[in-house]
TrEMBL record, chains A, B:
It comes from the Bacteria. It comes from Sphingomonas kyeonggiensis. Belongs to the FPP/GGPP synthase family. Its EC number is 2.5.1.1, 2.5.1.10. This is Farnesyl diphosphate synthase.
Length: 299, 299
């Protein structure tokens, strides 16, 4: 948590503990042949990760005084989708990664079939969590959350972006295509986190423009920082294999812009993200801290 | 469609055409690097399959005079889940099947990464379709459909059943465990189809007992018939590799009961399913025909 403000450090710690607690409840291991499936989900979901998306749900919803249980359960649903995507992306047929968050990936610690099913189960559980009235008493809020999450996870969002990322190894994408790819692959779920906070806060569509701009810019800055970490980071700190993009011959923000321009672009995006929060006072300081932190993180 | 009544034949034909039409609209191929992903989804989703789950949604909802668009879109969502599960179940790490519905499986026609993502996308699209107000104007109906589908797809339903099925190759399950496995693996989504028809029809929970009994019995009868087809069916008609359970040393209804008792059990379940429909008049004849057809089908 290098360079995170004290307030952000406290918030990250609180959200991480809450997510671990929520996953522990959601993924209680049954005493039947599905034991390995649940253990695999727990392995991937508990005790690790930056919990950036849950933090964004929480920091946004707090602007509007949303109930803590509603926040925690919505954040849990988003993190279910994020964790499922990591499990599937790590599979041998996809990015073929052995380490994630400093631990063996699910298909390494268990097996491929269990990893595929653990991802599928977390995917379904996200929508089960959202649909439960414990997440929000108003069915209209729940179905809006559910639809927003489904679009962000599907072919127009995260999964579509992953498909483009696989194609990136075979083609030579330009900056516009890489930007679109990343806006889908990581940006869609980051935007969905902020949007979910606004939905919980019952912000009407026309009142979400600033928050949407914030989310888009933070998502891109986060990805540029990720590209820089992939090239220059410390594998022990990041907890996964690095320098994979270069080896795969994939165009990234870094390869297309060079290190200096990529850093500059990310700083510009962070400033722009913070500018989008102008209508908000100190209650949005956590969102501002998150924007700055996307560049300063070392994992 | 051997032995299907004329009314059932007409309904199957109508539902199949409607599902192909819905998938064609849902899966319009974009002119970008996701082209292969959409083609893979279309390969799996269009022009094949018995469309049993959409038919059950439709036949149940018709009891209550539900609007045709609501029925078609809800049926589409269920079939998205069913098709995604077939794509993932066929993967080399899972059941490792080369043929499905008389065509190469998705990972054979495309590649494994595309198959994983095509399944993931159909999974998300199911919840996107349900959340859209075109599916039903009342958000309460949509969120109930969504939650019911998520539970049926997840670790307590279809995906949990598939995990138990993989374990079945390593263990020697008794009849109670095989029954539970199948009630989850195929039964959960079949039950969800009937339940969705009742939700669209605004049938309160206490009014669904008969329909739930019907769905449970039809689901089990269907699975016993599937086991018998696996042992005795014609590969050309069924369109996939057969006799896999025996080779894998898996216990099934057939291995545990023997052919004669398995047939008898399935007939008993069909009679019982029809008995559950006693409160309904001729308007439930299609549901009765579906129950009988589960045993008589040759594919």
């Amino acid at each position: 948590m290098a360079h995170a403000s004290l307030a952000l450090q406290a918030a990250l710690k609180q959200v991480s503990a809450e997510m671990d607690r929520q996953f522990d409840l959601l993924l209680a291991v049954p005493g039947d042949p599905r034991k390995g499936l649940y253990e695999a989900m727990r392995h991937a979901a508990i005790g690790g990760g930056k919990r950036l998306r849950p933090l964004l749900v929480s920091a946004t919803a707090q602007l509007f005084g949303v109930d803590r249980t509603c926040i925690a359960r919505t954040a849990l649903a988003l993190e279910c989708i994020h964790v499922y995507s990591l499990i599937h992306d790590d599979l041998p047929a996809m990015d073929d990664d052995d380490m994630r968050r400093g631990k063996p990936t699910v298909h390494k610690a268990f097996d491929e079939a269990t990893a595929i099913l653990a991802g599928d189960c977390l995917h379904a559980l996200a929508f089960e969590v959202i649909a439960d009235e414990k997440t929000h008493p108003d069915p209209f809020v729940r179905i809006e959350l559910s639809g927003t999450l489904a679009v962000a996870a599907g072919p127009a969002g995260m999964a579509g972006g992953q498909m483009m990322d696989l194609e990136a190894e075979k083609s030579s994408f330009d900056l516009a295509t890489v930007t679109r790819l990343q806006a889908m692959k990581t940006g869609a779920l980051i935007s969905c986190a902020v949007e979910s906070g606004a939905i919980l806060g019952r912000v009407p569509i026309e009142g979400r423009t600033g928050l949407r701009g914030y989310a888009r810019d933070v998502g891109l800055a986060f990805q540029i920082a990720d590209d820089i970490l992939d090239a220059e980071g410390d594998e022990a700190l990041v907890g996964k294999k690095l320098q994979k993009d270069g080896e795969a011959g994939k165009e990234t923000f870094l390869s297309l812009l060079g290190l200096e321009r990529a850093r500059e672009q990310a700083r510009m995006l962070v400033d722009q993200a913070i500018e989008h929060l102008k209508p908000y006072g100190t209650e949005a300081d956590l969102l501002r801290d998150i924007a700055r932190y996307t560049l300063e993180r070392d994992r």
